[in-house]
Automatic annotation (TrEMBL):
UniProt GO cellular component terms: cytosol; peroxisomal matrix
Protein's UniProt keywords contain Cytoplasm: yes
Organism name: Microcebus murinus
Annotated GO MF terms: peroxisome matrix targeting signal-2 binding
Location of this chain's protein in the cell: Cytoplasm, Cytosol; Peroxisome matrix
Name of the protein: Peroxin-7
Keyword terms, alphabetized: Cytoplasm, Peroxisome, Protein transport, Transport, WD repeat
UniProt-listed GO biological process terms: protein import into peroxisome matrix
Top-level taxon: Eukaryota
Similarity annotation: Belongs to the WD repeat peroxin-7 family.
Amino acid sequence: MSTARGGAARTLRVPGRHGYAAEFSPYLPGRLACAASQHYGIAGGGTLLIVDQIESGLRLFRSFDWNDGLFDVTWSENNEHVLVTGSGDGSLQLWDTAKAAGPLQVYKEHTQEYVQRSYIMT
């Protein structure tokens, strides 16, 4: 993990992970959640990164690993510590940043990928 000094641009590098979605907390200024995956989301696991922007740069507050790639993240509208991620395995994970353990709940609703097809009528 490294951060760039000076200027407004700051970078957080997490080896072996590629970010897919990022969202700032609506409650805590400077707190950012990022959904990331290994191998560009083609194979491997995923990681939810919680990052704080501080005077000296970026600081990793907490990270959570998942067995498949994480591709989306959003903060709860009702609780400053709760987020939801979407995974390549078709599940949603409910996380609590105040706890270092895995997800609070996992919702597995899809058994296969959905492909939307559009047909042109002639």
